[in-house]
Amino acid sequence: MHRISLCLLITILLAACGLPSATSTTPATTPTTEASPTSSRPPTPTRDPRLPTLPPRITPGPTATPFPIEAGWWDGAVCYEIFVRSFYDSDGDGNGDINGIIEKLDYLNDGDPTTTRDLGVNCIWLMPVAEAASYHGYDTIDYYTVEKDYGTNDDFKRLVAAAEQRGIKIIIDLVLNHTSTQHPWFQEALRDPASPYRDWYLWSAIDPGYRGPFGNNVVWHKSPIRDEYYYGVFWGGMPDLNFRNPAVTAEARNIARFWVEEMGVAGFRLDAIKHLIEYYTLQEDTVETFEWLRDFRRFLARELPGTFTVGEVFNGNPRTLAPYYPDQLDYYFEFEVAKQIVGAANTGLARLFMQAVQDAYTKLPYQRWAPFLTNHDQNRVMSTLGNDFGKAKLAALALLTIPGLPFIYYGEEIGMMGVKPDERIRTPMQWTKEEMGGFTAGYPWQLPQLDYPTKNVMLQDEDPDSLLNAYRQLIHLHINTPALAIGDFIPLQANGDDIAAYIRRSGDDIALVIINFDAVPTEPFTLSLSASDLPAGTYQLVSIYGTPPAPAAPLTISNGAFTDYRPFTEIPAQTGYILKLER
Hints:
The chain is of the alpha/beta class. It is 26% helix and 16% strand. The chain has helices spanning 2-16, 98-103, 105-108, 153-165, 184-191, 246-262, 287-303, 318-321, 335-347, 351-363, 381-384, 389-399, 457-461, 467-480, 482-486; strands spanning 79-82, 123-126, 130-132, 140-146, 169-174, 203-204, 220-222, 229-231, 267-270, 308-311, 331-332, 407-409, 488-491, 493-494, 499-506, 509-516, 527-529, 537-545, 555-557, 562-565, 575-582. A seven-stranded parallel sheet has the order 11-10-9-5-2-1-12, covered by helices on one side. Strands 13-15-16-21-18-19 form a six-stranded antiparallel sheet. A three-stranded antiparallel sheet has the order 6-8-7, with no helix packed on it. Strand 3 and strand 4 form a beta hairpin. Helix 9 (335-347) runs antiparallel to helix 10 (351-363) and helix 9 runs antiparallel to helix 12. The chain is globular.
C-alpha cells in the first residue's frame, strides 16, 4: 500500500514539473476534448504563465476501415529519387536543373517497352523543387514557385509532360512540417505579434528548456527581434508550422491542389510527418498527427482523387509504422527492411533480412510499404558496402524481388560513393569520365566523387556485367513480372544462414528467388516449405536472372508443400538467381 502511494506521489510530482511544447488555437481536425484512454495526458499544473498552453489531448478517430487503394500506376512501379541540383546541368551554371532532367529522361525510361537500354523506372521522386533558402530545398520560402536555380514553373510543366510521354509519373517532396525563417509568413509573424500569421508558428515567452526528440539540445530558438522563443524541431532556420491552426491546414491543401492541378504531379512524398503536431514534450507520432494525416488523406481522396502519397517516418518499422495505418497515407518507407538488405549484403547472413521482410509483409497492409537501400539522409549504400560491386548487386537483387514499392537513390545504379556531411552524399551524378563527370560544362556546385573517371554511366553502359546493367535487368523484370511486382511473399526454409530463398506468386505467375549473400560458395543445401496455397504439380525452373551452374532440378509441390528440395549442388559466392516455375 505504501509502495503504491509513493509511486502515485512521484507520478504527480513528475507531471507537475512537465513543460509544454507549443502554443495553439482550435485544433484543425475539431477533435473531442476528452483525453485518449490510451495516451498519457499531462495534467494542467501550476506553471509559469509565460509558457504556452495546449488543449487537452484528443480522442483518436476511427481507424477500422482503410480507405480503398484501387489498382493504379504504383502497382509494379519502381521509383527513382533525384536531387535536382546534382542530376544534370543543362545551362553550365553548375547547378542541376529541370531541363537537365528532361535531357536525361531517356536514360531513365525511353518510353519503348521493347528496349532494355534504359533504366526502366516509371516513377521519379524529386527532392524539394520549390523556392528555398538552402541548397537542399527543405526550408521553403515560396511553395508556389520552382527554385530559381532549377528553372521555372513552365520548365517543370514541360518535365511532367515529357515524363508522361515515357510512362513516368512525377512525385515531389511536400515539406509541410516547417518553413524557412525567410518565408514571408514567418517574417511577418516575427515582426508583428498581431499579424494573422503569428499563430501559424509556435511561440513561447520563455524557453521551456526541453530537448528535441532525437537528443538535440535546442528546439526552442531565441527570436532575433524580441525576448521570446519559437519552436523548430530540426534547427533554428526551419520553424515548425502550427497545424492546430485551421488556416495552416487550409494552406497545406491549397499547396497540394496547386501542384496536382496546376503543375501536374502524380503525388507527394511527405517529409518528416511524424513531427507534424507536437503535444508538450511528445514531439513525434502523436494522436494529433495521426488525425491530421487522416483528414488530409480524406481531402485528397475527395478533391484530388488518384493522388499518391508516401510518408517518411524516419527509422520506421512494423511496430512504429502500425499507428499510421490503415487510413492515413498510401505508403510509408520501411527503414528496417532497408537496413537488413544492406546488412545481409555486408555480412553474408540472410536471417535478419528474411525476418524483416516477413515482418513487414505480415504486419503491414499488403504492398503498402516502400523498401529502399539508402536515401539522401544516409551514407550511400556503396560506401557502406565497402565499394564491393558483388555486394551491391546482391542488395539490388533483394530490393527488386521483395514486396512493396522499391525506391532507388540516384547514382546507386552505378555504385556512387558518399559519406556525410550531407553535401557529400548528394554529389553530382557521374555520367562520363570527362571533367566533372559530364555533369556540367561549368564549375559544379559540389565537386563529384574522386572515382568518377572510372565509375560512371558511360563506362558501365558498355559492360554487360556492370552494376548499371544489373539494375536495368532487375527493374525491367520487376515491372514486367507480375509475381515480382505484386505477388505474394512465401519464405522458404533453407539449411544455411547465408541463403535467402523465397517464392513470389501472382496467380499462375510464380518465381523463386535464391540469394547466396556469403563471400564463399554455399555448402550443399536444401529448401523446404511446410504449407502454402501453391498449386500442386511438378515444375520446371527456368532462370530469368543469373546463370546457374547447371539447370535447376524439377520441383514437385504436393498439398502446398515440399521438403529437402535441392535446385543446385551449390551457389557461387555472392550470387543470386530468379527462376520462373513452369509446369
